[in-house]
């Protein structure tokens, strides 16, 4: 079998059937709130009704959610607030909607919700400020679809959504595989991949 590969599609990639549509799913007050301290990572077990998150052919039943804007499939105690370019073997396996030095104590928390009817697990960073600018807030979310909606190779699909994008010039946006040698880097410290659209309000990346 050919090793798994991921591609990224923006909502503006309308020539491709895989392009996502932006549809903010507000789970604030509906899901479970994680009240995170500064530079904290917590582990969340995926509900039994969701099943494993299959990512680059590996199955994960747990997510490690960091207040600094990234999510690790599986278990990690890393709480890295200094974003890097990816791939980088020093960093965890990750989904990074906005990896930056964020400050959860001034936010409305990180929420998660299992939307069983629609086969998806949602993580929402809700009114999340930056450590260096605690008056600038971001709303973004990661939507992971279960294996009933997997790609043809059996790997799970996921979407990043951005309700705001106020300060992305110091962030990393992308994902890194479990070997930490393969990644999709849409953005790093203000530099976009040539195939990536700008991160802005109303953007969705699948």
Number of helices: 0
Uncertain regions spanning at least 5 consecutive residues: none
Indicate the structural class: mainly beta
Please give the number of β-strands. Answer: 15
Q: Portion of residues in helices?
A: under 10%
Backbone CA Rg: 15 Å
- SSE arrangement, N to C: EEEEEEEEEEEEEEE
Q: Please tell me the overall pLDDT.
A: 96
- Largest beta-sheet characterization: 6 strands, antiparallel
Strand content: 35-45%
The neighbouring-strand order within the major sheet is 1-8-9-10-11-15
Write up this protein.
The chain is globular. The protein is an all-beta fold and 206 residues long. Strand 9 (120-130) and strand 10 form a beta hairpin. The model has no long low-confidence stretch (mean pLDDT 96). The chain has strands spanning 32-34, 41-45, 53-55, 58-60, 62-66, 70-73, 94-99, 110-115, 120-130, 133-145, 158-162, 172-176, 183-188, 191-192, 203-205. 0% of the residues lie in helices and 39% in strands. The protein contains no helices and 15 strands. The chain has a six-stranded antiparallel β-sheet, with no helix packed on it. Strands 7-12-13-14 form a four-stranded antiparallel β-sheet, with no helix packed on it. A three-stranded antiparallel β-sheet has the order 2-5-6, with no helix packed on it.
